[in-house]
Amino acid sequence: MTQLDDLPIRDDLRGLSPYGAPQQPVRVAINVNENPYHVPEVVAHRIVEAIARELPGLNRYPDREFTALREKLASYLGHDLTPDQLWAANGSNEIMQQLLQVFAGPGRRVLSFSPSYSMYPLLTRGVGSEFVTASRDDRFAVTPELAREAIEREQPDVTILCTPNNPTGTGMSLETIEAAYAATTGVLIVDEAYAEFRHDGEPSALELLPGRERLVVSRTMSKAFAFAGVRVGYFAAAPVVADAVRLVRLPYHLSALTQAAAGAALDCADVMLGQVEAIRVQRDRIVEEVTALGYAPYPSEANFVLIGGVDDPRAIFEGMLERDILIRDVGLPGTVRVSAGTEEETSAFLAALAELSRPATA
Ligand SMILES: *Cc1c(COP(=O)(O)O)cnc(C)c1O
Q: Where N6-(pyridoxal phosphate)lysine occurs along the chain (predicted)?
């Protein structure tokens, strides 16, 4: 049998592991921060109609510039953004890949603040760049000083700030983002995949876009929009940043079906986002109830909670799996991460955790 190592793959890819969050059929899947609610039926009908309109024309390539979708994304985001400031791709992972292809690449360096999203190092290595990390404070926050020092030390070509941060749920102040931008001559990507779940009053980096042409704010329809299966991510930036990624994107990268589905979903944004509040309630409930069980959850602005104070994360993971509940061991000592599910799913998780936390009786 041929092994991976027997193939003439790039030397810098040898020994790496692919992204591999388990995909198992379980009763309660709260391991990859998906939205637990189905696409609402009214929206599903609108999507079917929009896709039906596209079907006869599928012999032709789609609109390479996905003009209608960019208009809808601009009006969804507000902040006086214009369609030429928007760009979309097959998930924000592809957004990130396109940005790294054009602003990083061989011989260049990408900085992020760990712990953060596990795809950043994989995407970085995929484009042949060096991935470097800087640390957060003891509550996983990045202060303006930490950001400035790290950027001055590492001189990155691309800096990625994730806020709210995966896997910790931590938000980031606009002061930190401004400080990072001011400290770098490279591109600053702010990954706001979980933006819609922030507590009220928490700002978005979209506010900082005017006058900052090296700032890119990335978003996704995978989480709040309950659209992970469709693969739609997007960014907002100066129009010239969209020109830059046009240099590397594959022609016609967004299929006509994707464009139609995303457009129809955005036309129903209010309905699509209808469960965000319910998810935020479950998120805050997890923080409260696991605290009562004696754990130390980190404050979360996202749709998941990183729970600290876990003596044996592996045992909790296995104990949950025995109860048909899939959570995430993100490899941070003393923690597990759980996504906020429906009220029922969250109750199942909390009941299981209470059981697993009870001191063993003789
Ligand atoms: C889930 C997630 C995304 C979304 O990725 P898609 O490719 O849009 O599904 C992006 N960034 C972070 C930090 C995430 O956790």
A: 223
Coil, helix or strand at residue 57: helix
- Listed by start position, the domains of the chain span 22-38+274-357, 41-267
Tell me which residues have their CB closer than 6 angstroms to ligand 1: 33, 91-93, 117, 162, 166, 191, 193, 220, 222-223, 228, 233
For residues 261 and 232, give the distance between their C-alpha atoms in angstroms, rounded to a whole number: 10
Q: How far is the CA of 56 from the centre of ligand 1 (A)?
A: 32
Could you tell me if residue 84 is left (phi over 0), alpha (psi between -120 and 50 degrees) or otherwise beta?
alpha
The whole-angstrom separation of Cα 259 and Cα 50 is 9
Atom of ligand 1 nearest to the CA of 94: 7
Contact 157, 129 (CB under 8 A): yes
* CATH no. of 22-38+274-357: 3.90.1150.10
Do residues 213 and 186 make contact, with C-beta atoms less than 8 angstroms apart?
no
Question: pLDDT, tens digit, for every residue of 19-54?
Answer: 877 788 999 999 999 999 999 999 999 999 999 999
Task: Tell me which residue has its CA closest to atom 14 in ligand 1.
Answer: 193
**Angle in degrees, 0-180, between the axes of helices 343-357 and 313-322, rounded to the nearest 10:** 120
End-to-end CA distance of the chain: 50
Residue 114 is given by DSSP the state E
Name the more confident of 3 and 341: 341
Q: Whose CA is nearest to atom 11 of ligand 1?
A: 193
Q: At residue 235, what are phi and psi to the nearest 5 degrees?
A: -135, 160
Distance in Å, CA 60 to ligand 1 centroid: 30
Longest CA–CA span in the chain (Å) reads 70
pLDDT tens string 240-254: 999 999 999 999 999
Q: Decide whether 22-38+274-357 matches 41-267 in CATH topology.
A: no
pTM: 0.96
User: According to the CATH classification, is domain 41-267 in 3.40.640.10?
Assistant: yes
Residue type, 152: E
Whole-angstrom distance, CA of residue 268 vs CA of residue 264: 7
Q: Are 190 and 203 in contact (CB under 8 A)?
A: no
